[in-house]
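Supplementary Note 3. Input sequence used for the single-chain structure prediction.
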Amino acid sequence: MGVMFFVFIISCILLVCCSLTYNLQENNNGASLAQDTKVNTEETQPQATTPDFILSGSYDNMKTTWNQAVEYAMNNRNKVVTVRLDNDWYADDTSIHSFGTGVGFDGGIISIPRNAAIQFDLNGHTVNKKHTAQHANNYGMVFDNYGTFVLNDSSYDSELAHTIYEQNKDNPTKLLQELKNIKCGKITGGWTTGSGGGIWNVGTFIMNGGMIVGNKSNGNAGGIYSSITSDYIFSGIMEINDGIIVDNSANGGHGGGIFIHGKNTVIRKAIICCNTSTNYGGGIYTSDYTISIDKAYIAQNQAAYGGGVYAYGMCDLSINSGEIIHNTATALYGGIGVSERSRISVSGSIKVANNLCKNEPSNMGISETTSIRYSNVPKQLCYLLTKNLQQMQKYLSILIKMLIFLKLLLSIIQRSVATWIQKLSS
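The predicted structure, written as discrete structure tokens, is reproduced below.
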């Protein structure tokens, strides 16, 4: 009878241990991205063909050409209309710093309407809203997108950009300076009292190169805002395949570089550096939906919570390879912060290191209810998965109590067996 009781107790302990470690189990499918919405990037890469429209000449010439390009796109919904920028495009000097009026403009913002699909080649030139704090308003962003917006830059040298990042990533001042000096297409000068200083997206936005630099918001997203709409008419799909997001700030909201509340976001190869948020997510803030970060380089960003990346709500965050380094937080989570109910999957040769919170090491912070999945993770990452001290201490405390109980139980059983044998002998 005593042996049966012992077996029962041991079985219960094993079941409890299994349930405690379930969320940390290896899951080879952890880094996979949901497949219910896909964007065909093969057709959106920079093409060496004559564009449908060329933006060049004076302010009025560029305004008129953009009017024509957008109208043509709206009348040809099955076609991706190609537009190339052949000189810098500056907003005017009115109080709202407008790029133009009429079709293709929204309160002076360069706009891609619903049912229009435009592939825009920066071609090494700059689109500048020229906003400052005194001119900031709800129409202060550079672009807004309700349709399909493919941002290319045929001049962008990805290898050069990543070399500059690698050479300067440990020095924030030098990194910022050298990245901003890269000769490539740039979107800059946005400053909105709402969200999305550089680009505001509720449609489908694809970025294949170029730089989003020096944009600000008094709400969410200094650089790029991508979100579904409250009526769910627009899905806020985003795919970044390359490019630089640098020196953007969200002063009062979340996501200094990028704010995401849209379906199935993918970020590949991007350099996301030196962005700031006064709240959550210096580099990236994401909430509720699926996001995959693959071989991205997230460094020298700052926020109150989640200096590099912050995932909130029912977010499914997958990180594969790349770096999350030298990010800082003033309140919690220097590198990565993940709230309760979110899930994070980590795979590949990802480096999460040298992130700080209040001048103390802080690479990753998660809630007790966060699910972590990892696969093919190198040994040097193991420390990252054990940085959640509160959770690990809780589990260790429970296991220690179990071991003490087991030791006591074995002692009782041992004495009982000895007494039983003694009685049999007599």
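The helical segments are 2-21, 59-75, 158-168, 172-180, 382-385, 389-425. The mean pLDDT is 85.
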